[in-house]
Specification:
Strand content of chain A: over 45%
Radius of gyration of chain B: 13 Å
Order of helices and strands of chain B: EEEEEEEEEEE
Largest sheet of chain A: 7 strands, mixed
Order of helices and strands of chain A: EEEEEEEEEEE
Structural class of chain A: mainly beta
Number of helices of chain B: 0
Oligomer: heterodimer
Structural class of chain B: mainly beta
């Protein structure tokens, strides 16, 4: 596609529910990144993929967070048993290769009530 | 000490002036440096990247890198109200695949 596509763009969920956030990177981009940005805060690194492999999961806040990527393309970030502190914008980015310039999607705005 | 530091601002400049945004980083292994612009409620968009010491110019924007002093700056000439946004500095550290972002500097260009 022309750019990084994320869905849903907005999600309101009840505390304790599971949510799935989807990212479709730019066609041909092998590296994919997930970041989180809370209101008024900087970008917090969560995880990156090279192909379908996630060598660095150190940024995931807790074991309630998981991510996968299939076919070297679409990635899903899953948050189980959501908490109010999970409310944030979840940004996906992709790059042609690792260490190359990364391009962001429009984000998925998650609100946990 | 944070890995990438920026003054949160807001930095206010009059229209037509030069806006100077600064960023310092702590890891001497940092190899690539990026400036992103983020409008309120939007995702970051790339403005410039720089790898080597010195200046790099692109239109009204100039990125400056000084690895010895561990800082990178962004100059915006002839600032316009449409430049009002938060500017994020990002650093890629040699040997890793992480891009570490600063918390951003909010720029206000006054008409």
């Amino acid at each position: 596609g022309a750019g990084v596509s994320q869905s849903p763009s907005n999600k309101v969920t009840e505390k304790g529910k599971d949510v799935e956030l989807r990212c479709d990177p730019i066609s041909g981009h092998t590296a994919l990144y997930w970041y989180r940005q809370s209101l008024g805060q900087g970008l917090e690194f969560l995880i990156y993929f090279q192909g379908n492999s996630a060598p660095d999961k150190s940024g995931l806040p807790s074991d309630r967070f998981s991510a996968e990527r299939t076919g070297g393309s679409v990635s899903t970030l899953t948050i189980q048993r959501t908490q109010q502190e999970d409310s944030a914008v979840y940004l996906c980015a992709s790059s042609r290769d690792l260490r190359d310039t990364i391009y962001f999607g429009e984000g998925s705005w998650l609100t946990v009530v | 000490q944070k890995e990438v530091e920026q003054n949160s601002g807001p930095l206010s400049v009059p229209e037509g002036a030069i806006a100077s945004l600064n960023c310092t980083y702590s890891d001497r292994g940092s190899q690539s440096f990026f400036w992103y612009r983020q409008y309120s409620g939007k995702s970051p968009e790339l403005i410039m990247f720089i790898y080597s010491n010195g200046d790099k110019e692109d239109g009204r924007f100039t990125a400056q890198l000084n690895k010895a002093s561990q800082y990178v700056s962004l100059l915006i000439r002839d600032s316009q109200p449409s430049d009002s946004a938060t500017y994020l500095c990002a650093v890629n550290i040699l040997g890793t695949y992480k891009y570490i972002f600063g918390t951003g500097t909010r720029l206000k260009v006054l008409a």
